[in-house]
Design a protein that fits this description.
Blueprint: E1 3-13, E2 26-35, E3 38-43, E4 52-55, E5 60-63, E6 65-67, H1 79-86, H2 96-105, H3 108-124, E7 127-130, E8 132-133, H4 140-151, E9 157-162, H5 173-187, E10 192-197, H6 204-216, E11 220-225, H7 233-239, E12 244-247, H8 253-260, E13 265-268, H9 270-275, H10 282-288, E14 293-295, H11 309-320, H12 324-338, E15 355-358, H13 365-368, E16 375-380, E17 383-385
Parallel strand pairs: 1-4, 1-5, 6-7, 8-9, 9-10, 10-11, 11-12, 12-13, 13-14
Antiparallel strand pairs: 1-2, 2-3, 5-15, 15-16, 16-17
Bound molecules: N-(iminomethyl)-L-glutamic acid (NIG) and fe (iii) ion.
Fe (iii) ion (FE) is lined by residues 69, 71, 224, 298.
């Protein structure tokens, strides 16, 4: 038995509106006790007989960020492509091919080191759970090795062999779809199956076939949809009871209605909207329709090269029409819902003590002080961690 108490917490975000104020379930001057890695009590009085104490005077404690969408297994960068957009170039799915070339040439050690570097960035920005996709290998060998490296760092691994049609299959794309369905999926041990159903990537029929094949091999479904053009991706996600439909910025009214009456979370990727100069305000329409929403980093070298969930929270507020409360909830509980996890994303008795302590009196500062790392420390199972661990 080991116990630790977080005392004098100026603002505690629980995400449990039955214990605190508003959608974030806020408590002031609270004490949170952790026993054996799990939350054992939340009170507004002092702790009794604990092994150690962390004085949180003047600080904010909230659930660790749950980043439910990232592409961390890659090599190279595409800074020139980013700069070209600042000169008016449009983002297209075509840029993915250059990262595929670099990733295929990289050694396992290089891919592992790059992922570790990014995960350490995420950790010091307060991320405690992260989903990691393959998708820059696009051969059986390179997709499976990408997943093997991802699984060293997280259990939330996703097979995204359906990212784009690789260059060598441009003239016979359906042969690549067959390879994904008949060779890669059966050998994959990923938890999730994903497909990029969009302009320049996979069409709805190909995407649906790949997701169905993944589901029949025991994976949960998620999708990239409506990033570049409105299409059938959201309808497919809802029909297959996918955990999440991601990007969704070009969604139609019908898509929003479908999501509102489903168990599929809409995951917004404000870093991608920021980095590709995309349209704004779209989050509000989903929130007003009652859709369950998440915010994730989408960290990748092409469309969103950030690991910072606080940056994504600030961007969701300024670009997508979220309130600060909605953005913080979407980056914590929303991410957990997008991964269908019930042990994280909320601070309630019995849940994992995955926490982020901010050097700020309120969660509002996450958006109010953009670009400033306010994270004082990050805890996994109640223990302060300074380098990424699974
Ligand atoms: O989620 N949209 C597709 N895939 C990534 C971008 C990949 C890239 O441009 O390298 C995304 O934004
Ligand atoms: Fe993505």
């Amino acid at each position: 038995m080991s116990s630790i108490a977080f005392t004098n917490i100026a603002t505690l975000v629980t995400n449990d509106s039955s214990v605190g104020e508003g959608v974030l379930g806020i408590l002031r001057n609270a004490t949170l006790v952790v026993e054996n890695g799990l939350i054992s009590s939340i009170t507004q009085s002092g702790p009794l007989g604990v092994d150690s104490e962390v004085d949180c005077s003047g600080k904010t404690l909230l659930p660790g960020f749950v980043d439910s969408h990232s592409h961390l297994i890659f090599s190279g960068d595409r800074a020139d492509e980013f700069a070209a957009r600042s000169h008016g170039q449009k983002y297209t799915a075509g840029g993915i091919a250059s990262t595929v070339r670099a990733t295929r040439q990289a050694s396992d050690a290089e891919l592992r080191e790059n992922a570790k570097r990014l995960l350490n960035e995420a950790l010091i920005s307060g991320t405690t759970t992260i989903e990691v996709k393959s998708g820059y290998g696009l051969t059986e060998k390179d997709e499976l090795r990408s997943l093997a490296i991802a699984s060293e760092f997280t259990d939330e691994t996703t097979l995204l062999a359906a990212h784009v049609i690789p260059e060598e299959f441009q003239r016979n794309p359906d042969d690549y779809v067959d390879l994904v369905i008949n060779s890669i999926i059966p050998k994959s041990r990923a938890k999730w199956i994903d497909a990029f159903c969009d302009l320049g990537a996979f069409n709805p029929e190909q995407s649906e076939a790949i997701l169905r094949a993944g589901i029949s091999h025991g994976m949960g479904a998620r999708i990239h949809a409506n990033q570049l053009k409105a299409g059938d991706g959201v309808a497919i996600a809802v029909a297959l009871d996918a955990a999440s439909a991601d990007h969704v910025s070009k969604s139609t009214k019908k898509d929003i209605e479908l999501l509102a009456s489903s168990n599929t979370v809409a995951t917004f990727l404000p870093g991608a909207e920021f980095s590709t100069h995309s349209e704004t305000g779209i989050g509000r329409r989903f929130l007003d329709a009652g859709v369950t929403v998440a915010i994730a980093s989408d960290c990748n070298p092409g469309s969103s090269y950030t690991t910072s969930m606080p940056f994504c929270i600030a961007s969701a507020v300024s670009l997508l029409g979220f309130t600060v409360e909605e953005a913080v909830r979407a980056a914590t509980l929303g991410g957990a819902q997008a991964l269908r996890r019930t042990d994280i994303g909320q601070l309630s008795i019995g849940m994992r003590a995955d926490l982020v302590l901010l050097q700020a009196p309120s969660f509002i500062h996450l958006a109010y002080r953009p670009g400033v790392n306010l994270v004082h420390s990050t805890y996994k199972l109640g223990r302060a961690v300074t380098s990424w661990q699974k």
